[in-house]
Specification:
The protein is 35% helix and 19% strand. The chain contains seven helices and nine strands. α2 links the parallel β1 and β2. Strands 3-2-1-6-4-7-5 form a seven-stranded parallel sheet, sandwiched between helices. The chain has a two-stranded antiparallel ribbon with strand order 8-9. The protein is α/β, with parallel strands linked by helices. The relative contact order is 0.17. The protein starts with 6 loop residues before the first helix and ends in a 16-residue tail after the last strand.
Length: 219
C-alpha cells in the first residue's frame, strides 16, 4: 500500500537521521558567550547542526532566549535564522559565563576558546590544534564586539586563532564559527571512525565511515 503524502516526509526525515547518525560528533559542544544578535545565534546553530556538533550552549544574561528548548524550537526568529536547525540541535541557555563553566566542568568537559594570542596560555592556529585528545570538548565563541571574556579564557586549555592574510584581520561570528567547527569536527570524526569513546575504549574492529555516501549510494 502506498504511503500518504503526510507519511512520506516523516519517512524521509527518519532516513536522513539514520544516515547521519554515525557522523555526529558526540560530546562536542559549541558555546556562544553573550551574543547580541539573534541572527548570529541562529547562524551558529545552523553551522553546528550542519557540521555534526552535538549541542549548542548560549550564555545569555539578557535573557533573549527562553530557558526551555521546546520554546526555542517554536521561536520564529530563531527558527528562521537557523533555517530550522534549532529543531534538530539541542540548545541550552545560561544566565552567566560562571554558570556555564560550572556546568561544563561538573560534567567533565574541557574548554577551548577562539581568541587572538593570550599571554600565559597555550596558543595555536586552528590547523595546528589537536582536538581529539579530550573525550568531552566545549568550543567557545565570544561576543561580536568584545570577543571572549577573561573568565572563559582563564578556564580554557587552549586559545585558537584562525590564520588571516588580509588587511582586515577579523571575521564575523557566523563565519568564524563555521571555519573553526569544520576543522574540529573533521578531526573528531576521523578519531571516532577508528576509536571508541565509551567505556569500551580501543580500536574498532570495523571503522565507521568518515564520509557521507552519495545520494545514489544510499538505500
Amino acid at each position: 500500500m502506498e504511503k500518504s503524502d503526510e507519511e512520506k516526509p516523516k519517512a524521509s526525515v527518519r532516513k536522513r537521521a539514520e544516515a547521519i547518525k554515525a557522523f555526529r560528533c558526540k560530546n562536542l559542544i559549541a558555546v556562544i558567550e553573550e551574543p547580541t544578535d539573534i541572527k548570529n545565534i541562529g547562524t551558529v546553530i545552523r553551522n553546528a547542526n550542519a557540521l555534526g556538533v552535538e549541542k549548542v550552549y548560549v550564555v545569555d544574561p539578557r535573557r533573549a532566549l527562553p530557558d526551555d528548548w521546546q520554546e526555542m524550537r517554536e521561536r520564529k526568529s530563531l527558527s528562521k535564522t537557523s533555517v530550522s536547525a534549532v529543531k534538530w540541535t539541542f540548545v541550552k541557555r545560561f544566565d552567566s559565563t560562571e554558570s556555564c563553566i560550572e556546568h561544563l566542568e561538573k560534567n567533565g568537559f574541557i574548554s577551548v576558546v577562539t581568541s587572538p594570542h593570550v599571554k600565559g596560555k597555550t596558543n595555536v592556529f586552528l590547523h595546528e590544534g589537536d582536538y581529539k585528545q579530550h573525550t568531552k570538548l566545549a568550543v567557545w565563541f565570544g561576543n561580536e564586539k568584545r570577543g571572549i571574556s577573561e573568565l572563559a579564557v582563564a578556564h580554557c586549555e587552549m586559545c585558537i586563532a584562525i590564520p588571516m592574510f588580509g588587511m582586515i584581520e577579523s571575521l564575523n561570528l557566523g563565519t568564524s564559527s563555521g571555519i573553526v567547527l569544520y576543522e574540529i569536527t573533521k578531526q573528531r570524526r576521523e578519531y571516532q571512525s577508528q576509536y571508541r569513546r565509551s567505556k569500551r575504549k580501543g580500536e574498532r574492529t570495523k571503522r565507521l565511515p568518515t564520509e557521507m555516501p552519495r545520494d545514489e549510494d544510499q538505500v
